[in-house]
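Dear support,

Our group has been running a series of protein-ligand predictions, and this particular one with glycine is the one our PI (initials K.S.) wants archived with full inputs and outputs. We had some confusion internally about which version of the output was final, so please treat the block below as the authoritative record. The input we submitted was:
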Amino acid sequence: MKILIVGGGGREHAIAWKLSQSPAQPELYCAPGNGGIGEIAKLVAIKATDIDGVCTFAVENKIDLVVVAPDDPLVAGMVDALEAKGIRAFGPSAAAARIEGSKVFSKELMKKYGIPTAKYETFSDPGAAIAYLEKSSYPTVIKAEGLALGKGVIIPQSFEEAKQAVQDIMEDKQFGDAGNRIVIEEFLTGREISVLAFTDGKTLLPMCSAQDHKRALDNDEGLNTGGMGAYSPSPIYDAAMERECMENIFLPTVEAMRKEGCPFKGVLYFGLMATKDGVKVIEYNARFGDPETQAVLPRLENDLLEIMDAIIDERLAETKLSFKTDAAACIIAASGGYPKDYKKGYPISGLENVEGAIVFHSGTAKEDGTFKTNGGRVLGVTAMGPTLREAVDKAYENVKKISFTDMHYRTDIGKHGVV
Ligand code: AMP
Ligand code: GLY
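Confirmed final output from the archive:
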């Protein structure tokens, strides 16, 4: 059987790695993939956003299953297009992916179905937004409506900063049409938790919880990034909190999407904040999170292919998930300068010395037999252990064996989780 994975980062490497262990022994393809993924899958030179290209390749090569991993092709309708060609595809439809693709859609959904989230207002007129911000208390939160490469959330500390953000997003179109409308919402405080869940539109099975680290530098300083590391499980997400989330958030979301006529099939990502008034939704994503996936999938004991098939065929109720009790930690090694300007093409050394850890490639290319840096986030080193401390220590021990020019990683991944 042939599987094509769409995407080319650490998340896609983790998905490919997990699928490569399936008893069905699938032949893996990845578009466009990266150097590391190329070790376990055939790389196909098609962009992850090229819907026609992916459809044509899948038809011509008789692909049995296409796994669409990133947000942009999901929101643009890649799964719908594949299905229209008779190709089995894993991931939500464009209508369901609006839960990530439109902040206005997701906020209205939560309001309508009573799912706890920050209070908000929506604006399509910059003047009205500024008038509202003049009377707001600070910090507040401004979100561009559409996809903005993870950079569409601004937390202004003052009216001046807020006014500038409205100018950048709505007038100067910093994020293009993604900024035609904005959501201004209440600033929540508390601990953040990521929960990824499998759902076939009826049944929802949460995976083990995880914690992302979004800022570039230690102590959560520096710029927001795609994620500099993750660990699993989150120490504050206990059985009682999982019950609360199931009752108030997870199941109501699945139900809401069904009632709206766009049942969600795939991986639904809940970005949560444990506030003093209970757990609230910060954001939904319509896909596996990155780097969380690199900490969560190594703990999953089930065959991922079987789960994906059960979701597509809407028989997830028959599945029982099982996770290793060991904790997992993933440290991202990034290019110096990321998330701003950085250079590519530096050779990576020391990979052969890694022991007792998995190296997922986020941004690498293989040239003349050597892996070279080819992106902002370069590698994700995941290790497991009976305790989070042991997992973190083993991950760092291995990160230190790897080097490339200007390599940067945070030294405090997992620190908040080690109690
Ligand atoms: P997002 O891109 O939606 O994940 O937002 C990026 C980050 O902004 C989140 O991980 C939070 O740390 C922060 N954030 C988003 N919304 C809020 C909010 N309402 N209150 C406080 N922090 C928020
Ligand atoms: N780790 C956050 C995301 O995948 O969007």
